[in-house]
Structures are given as C-alpha cells and as structure tokens.
C-alpha cells in the first residue's frame, strides 16, 4: 500500500469509528453524562496496526452498550464515551497520556499492547490513587501479558482480561507435547519484559513436557526496530530447528513470518498472535499446517452465538484489513458495565469491588475475574493455519484466503495457574 493509500485507509478508519461514537451518543438520553473510558495505545509508529485493531474492538464494544441505552444506574442510563490517546508506543508517551486522560475526566484506563507500558501505568496509577483518592482510576488491561502484572507487581486497581504469558505457553506446549515429529526448537522474542518472560516459561515447560526437544537457538531482538528479519530467519533455518516458538506480535511477527517463508524454512511456528495482523498473508501457503496460534476465540469456533457475533463485527467493519475481532475486549467492556450496574454507582472504589467478582458470557464463552490477583480466567483455543474452505475453516482472516482450524480447546478452569500476588486493598 502506498503512502496515499495508507493515509486514506487511516482517515476512513478514523471517520468510521468517529461516526460510531457520535451515533452511539444519540442512542442514550441527550442530557446523560457519559462515562469516560481512556484508551492509551500506540496509534502511530511501527505498532500502529495493533493500536488500530484495539481501537476498532473497543469502539464496537462501546457502541453496542450505547445502542441498548447505555449503563443502567439508579437515576438514569449513562452512555460510554471512548477517548483516544496516542502513547507513540512508549512509556513516556503513555504516562503523559494518563495525565491528560485524568484531567479530561476519564476514570477508567484501557491499555494492553506493551507489558513495559502496562507496568509503568500500574505504578503511576497506584501512586495517583493514593495521592488523589477523589479522582481514583481503574486500569483495564486487554493484552499486556507479562505474568508479573498479576503476580509480584499486582495492583488492586489493575484488572487483566487476557491470559498471561505462562498461561499461554502452558497451553501451546500441551500441543507441542503431542507433536512427536518435533525434536528441536528455536526460541525468538522481542527484547523486553514480556519476551524474556515467555522464553523463560517456554524453557521450563519444554523441560517438563518434552525433555527430548533440543533448544537449538535462543534469541532476543530489539522491539519494533528490525526492518529485515531475513538474517534471523537464515539463522533459524541453519540451526536445523523443526519448530519456532515466538510470542512476537504486530509488525515484528509479520516480518519474521514473511522472512521465514522467503528463506524456505519448513518447520512449525508456535505463536501467540500468528492468526492475524498480516502474518497469514505474509507467510502464505508455507504456513498451511505449520503456523499455530493461540487465542481466547477465533472465527472458526463452532456455535450459532459465535457465528452471529462474528457476522455482526464483519458487518460493522466490512473492510478485510479491519478483520480482527478480539472476544476478550468485548467481555472486558461487558464486565465493566456489569460492575458499574451492580455497584449502582460510577465511584471507582465501588466499581472495583464489584469487578473483582465479575462473570460474563458471550459467543458461547464464559469467563470470570479471580479476586486473588485480578486475572480474568477464560477458555483458550489453539488453531492451525489452513486454506479457507477446507474442513473446519469456514472463515479466513483479513481477506488472506487463510484461516485457522481449531485443534485444541481449553476450558476456563484448565487455563488457570497459581498466583504469588499479595493484593493490597484500600482501607
């Protein structure tokens, strides 16, 4: 896509979401005060595509709540309003955005695409809430999966709605455990807290489940700064690895997958996020039967409720480039609405107390918040890339012609792991 095409697409996206938010405001009573939610995300730079996907999912979730009249409170129904702040992909930008969001009246912060940013936000919000109890803030995390966030760095004001890295690795390694053709693996990740946590967890799980699998290479690379992954792909191929385990996300995954296809690597890719954001199209036919991805939901999950939800999302965002529905974002907003309605108030202390015991269902999937560490427990599925139209692959992703056939499903209780969190609750 040329620069002009990219700008046109981004303008169309902004216009579509802007119209959605304006339209949803009309669904509520005009005089109602909106409940402001602040999205702090990378909306520019190398990971803008992940930020845009988050924005679409959250805008749609907000729109759906407002279309049914908003949040039911004792005195009135209040609409949700989604405010957007560009972190530029960094900690400093995110902290500046947090200050602006609080000044703009937002009391719920939404973020996920960077564990380093999430850890900084947790620390800043803890300090703010202690210093300024009249303007306390909740942090809802939909994608930052460093295990520390619900273990040693857990916070009463932070709630995670994605499975953390150890939970994800454990599920993926259960599939690899049964893949007896794999006897060697190469580990590669982005060099920051999340990537390092995944490599540590992968080594531990492999040692326990498949001690016969040799780790023939292990690599950490700069986050969002590599433009050409061919040198990395050549090292992977030369190592003789039969599988690659990577938690890479965004452009770093897309470029790695593309480079692997270019150099003729024929092993399997065990990924956290290989089911969208350009990765299937980049790797093409070389990924059939070889790219494995993990998520809380995928379009080819069977069931009438799942089909209806996906059809509604594609109707709302028909452009194939905007096709990446995250069920957890929808569950997160529904859990927040449920907590506010159960509290009968938007007072953050009351909402947090109800959010600790949230239980929500959608598309045939039910998840619940664990009060001990504020980790959301939900089902997980593993899919393997295949051509659309093959058995089990009704839907492709992003118009690529490739989709993911579900090969393993884990019930919510099967995904849970112990926590070391020592939750400090406010007086």
From TrEMBL:
Lineage of source species: Bacteria, Pseudomonadati, Pseudomonadota, Betaproteobacteria, Burkholderiales
Family in the record: Belongs to the leucine-binding protein family.
Protein name: Branched-chain amino acid ABC transporter substrate-binding protein
Keyword vocabulary terms for this entry: Signal
InterPro entries in alphabetical order: BCAA_transport (IPR051010), Leu-bd (IPR028081), Peripla_BP_I (IPR028082)
Leader peptide range in chain numbering: 1-27
Coiled coil region boundaries: none
Domain of life: Bacteria
Pfam families noted in UniProt: Peripla_BP_6
């Amino acid at each position: 896509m040329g620069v002009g095409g990219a700008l046109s697409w981004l303008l169309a996206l902004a216009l579509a979401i802007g119209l959605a938010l304006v339209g949803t405001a009309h669904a509520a009573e005009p005089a109602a005060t909106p409940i402001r939610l602040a999205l702090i995300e990378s909306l520019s730079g190398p990971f803008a595509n992940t930020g845009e996907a988050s924005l679409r999912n959250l805008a749609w979730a907000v729109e759906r709540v407002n279309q049914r009249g908003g949040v039911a409170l004792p005195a009135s129904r209040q609409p949700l309003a989604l405010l957007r702040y560009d972190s530029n992909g960094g900690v400093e930008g995110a902290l500046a955005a947090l200050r602006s969001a609080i000044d703009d009246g937002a009391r719920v912060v939404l973020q996920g695409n960077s564990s380093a940013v999430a850890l900084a936000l947790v620390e800043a919000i803890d300090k703010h809430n202690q210093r300024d109890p009249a303007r306390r803030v909740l942090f809802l995390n939909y994608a930052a999966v460093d295990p520390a966030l619900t273990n040693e760095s857990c916070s009463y004001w932070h709630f995670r709605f994605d499975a953390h890295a150890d939970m994800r690795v454990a599920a993926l390694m259960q599939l690899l455990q049964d893949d007896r053709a794999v006897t060697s693996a190469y580990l590669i990740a982005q060099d920051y807290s999340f990537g390092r946590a995944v490599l540590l967890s992968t080594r531990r799980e492999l040692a326990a489940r498949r001690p016969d699998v040799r780790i023939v290479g292990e690599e950490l690379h700069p986050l969002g700064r590599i433009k050409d992954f061919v040198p990395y792909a050549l090292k992977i191929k030369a190592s003789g690895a039969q599988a690659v385990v990577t938690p890479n996300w965004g452009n770093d995954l897309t470029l790695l997958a593309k480079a692997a296809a270019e150099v003729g690597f024929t092993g399997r890719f065990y990924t956290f996020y290989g089911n969208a954001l350009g990765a299937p199209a980049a790797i093409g036919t070389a990924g059939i039967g070889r790219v494995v991805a993990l998520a809380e939901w995928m379009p080819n999950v069977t069931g009438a409720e799942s089909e209806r939800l996906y059809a509604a999302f594609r109707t709302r965002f028909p452009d194939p480039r905007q096709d990446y529905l995250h069920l957890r974002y929808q569950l997160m907003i529904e859990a927040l609405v449920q907590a506010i309605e159960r509290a009968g108030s938007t007072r953050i202390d009351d909402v947090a107390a109800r959010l600790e015991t949230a239980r929500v269902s959608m598309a045939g999937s039910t998840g619940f918040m664990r009060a001990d560490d504020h980790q959301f427990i939900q089902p997980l599925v593993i899919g393997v890339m295949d051509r659309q139209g093959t058995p089990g692959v009704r839907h492709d992703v992003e118009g690529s012609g490739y989709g993911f056939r579900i090969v393993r499903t884990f019930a919510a209780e099967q995904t849970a792991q112990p926590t070391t969190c020592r939750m400090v609750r406010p007086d």
